[in-house]
Amino acid sequence: MDLKVLFFLGTAFLTSVIISVCILLIATSKAYPLVVRSKKEKYFIDPISGKEIQFPTNNEKSSVHLSVIVPAYNEETRLPPMLDECTEFLENRCKNSDFKYEIIVVSDGSTDKTVKIAQEYAKKLSTDKLRVLDLENNRGKGGAVRLGMQSARGSVLLFADADGATKFSDLAKVEEGLYKLIKYDYQKNPSIVEEKLAISIGSRAHLEKEAIAKRNFFRTILMYGFHFLVWLFTVRGLKDTQCGFKLLTREASRICFDSLHVERWAFDVEMLYIAQSLKIPISEVAVKWTEIDGSKVTPVWSWIQMGVDLGLIWLRYTIGAWKIKPIKKY
Asked: What's the CA gap between 217 and 161, in Å, rounded?
């Protein structure tokens, strides 16, 4: 058979496959995420009284300065050291000031003692400072962070990994990054800051050379491949999208997470993609980071999964299967 004919047939077949995939994605995708939340997941339990108390929503005004969202899936071992460091830092800030904070531990369908341990901290600190959102089923890290964000009271909201890989004292660095974008201090002007649009993210990019020296060649190739796919399909201008230490104003959190579809590991990338699409300013700040044993990420499989998610994020938004809710003008 003539090569030109083969090329034509091959191109026609490939085109038909792409069109079919696009039609399938449009037919099976919801333009905006439908977040189903059970009755139990709308309440937290006061460990002292045993009463169920309803979480607020992200459409309400803030009533504390800072909310810290901690997604946790079977983290009975790594959670206590993280909460000890976090609460010590925040309690010291509360001394001789009117600073108010809350921590929301989101148990993502944990089957170990994660909820019990978090409730012990809630009993010690009070539920005004620490609340436990106990999800009935495992949703994925993105799903857990989203529900935590939508249940928070803060003028600004930070999500931080339960492993404590990022030192909590580096909050001051990402706060400074946020301040440079909006020119307001959320501790002094919480009602002004909550309505601003800005995101400040921790970054491990400065540690990349050291990490490469410790990794084997295959894992290094996978890392560079992931970075390339992030740049190609979704987010540009940021060196590290996956560090689990990100600070958002209340309005930026509401806008980004109300449009978020991905509930697995690639949710950070989609959140930043949404932010860049809406021209929400983003600051990237170097933070200290230490690898902690017990990671739930499977190096090869999770990265492949994230790579597929990146391509699908780009494709779904490009063909209109997914849409981003516009910023409301008041």
From this structure: 27
